[in-house]
């Protein structure tokens, strides 16, 4: 489930693949410095009620990662030349948040079609010690589970738990329906990674095209409160942290 070249067959079957050295360690270091500068100048902001997420706009300095050829080429490999962007953010663990994240799917928190992957690009070392991700390969094949929240521990107790160790520049590609979480950080070493969510460019929730194909004429960029008069989110469900 890892290598320097993507196996689309392995990715589709297991829901996860690690691209080693997708970008150089020097480039990862440059973006890590850009991340800290962005926190200082306010062009990137920690999201309220979501301690691990740092948000920024498409015109922010951190969004220039989308211009890197390795990122575009990988997205086009995953979606056969027709990739779109669903969302981009940084997910972190540091002195502000060291807690574990419960096992969950990302799909219920997204709009649009079901076929979507996260490209978790490591800007720092990311492993079990500093709260790195763990995944249960193949569980995306269960599809949407009918709700969002913490998946019961007894369902995963006998499953294979994949705990990757990433170095700066490595990229974990993960289907948004795969069951995953992250451990509690036990060190003062920050864990910083991009979460670049990609999908077919035809998905109505795509915000930009990462290819030469046009976005769909059907566009879906409404917030939850703009779609529903009553929903679980409006009743207080905030999602994983």
**Largest pleated sheet:** 9 strands, mixed
CATH class division: Mainly Beta
Mean residue pLDDT: 93
Structural class determined from secondary elements: alpha+beta
Q: Work out the strand percent.
A: 15-25%
- The CATH architecture classification is Sandwich
| Helix content, binned percent | 10-25%
The CATH homologous superfamily is called q2cbj1_9rhob like domain
Query: Number of helix segments?
Result: 5
CATH topology: Jelly Rolls
The total domain count is: 1
Rg over CA atoms, rounded to whole Å, is 17 Å
Head-to-tail CA distance between termini:
26 Å
Q: Can you tell me the overall shape? A: globular
Task: Describe the overall structure.
By secondary structure, this protein is an alpha+beta fold. It has a single domain, classed as q2cbj1_9rhob like domain (Jelly Rolls), CATH 2.60.120. Helices cover about 15% and strands about 25% of the residues. The strands form two sheets. Strands 1, 2, 3, 4, 5, 7, 9, 11 and 12 form a nine-stranded mixed sheet that branches. The protein has a three-stranded antiparallel sheet with strand order 6-10-8, with no helix packed on it.
């Amino acid at each position: 489930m890892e290598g320097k070249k993507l196996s689309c067959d392995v990715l589709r079957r297991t829901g996860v693949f690690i691209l080693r050295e997708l970008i150089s360690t020097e480039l990862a270091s440059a973006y890590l410095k850009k991340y800290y500068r962005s926190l200082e100048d306010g062009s990137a902001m920690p999201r309220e009620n979501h301690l691990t997420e740092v948000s920024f706009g498409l015109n922010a300095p951190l969004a220039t990662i989308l211009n890197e050829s390795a990122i575009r080429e990988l997205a086009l490999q995953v979606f056969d030349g027709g990739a779109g962007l669903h969302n981009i953010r940084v997910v972190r663990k540091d002195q502000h948040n060291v807690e574990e994240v419960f096992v969950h799917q990302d799909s219920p928190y997204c709009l649009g079609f079901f076929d979507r992957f996260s490209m978790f690009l490591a800007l720092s070392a990311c492993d079990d010690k500093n709260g790195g991700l763990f995944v249960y390969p193949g569980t995306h094949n269960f599809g949407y589970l009918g709700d969002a929240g913490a998946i019961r521990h007894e369902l995963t107790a006998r499953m294979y738990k994949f705990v990757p160790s990433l170095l700066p520049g490595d990229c974990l590609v993960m289907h948004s329906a795969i069951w995953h979480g992250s451990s509690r950080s036990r060190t003062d070493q920050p864990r910083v990674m991009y979460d670049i969510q990609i999908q077919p460019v035809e998905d109505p929730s795509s915000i930009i095209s990462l290819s030469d194909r046009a976005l769909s004429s059907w566009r879906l960029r409404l917030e939850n409160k703009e779609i529903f008069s009553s929903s679980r989110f409006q009743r207080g469900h905030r999602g994983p942290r």
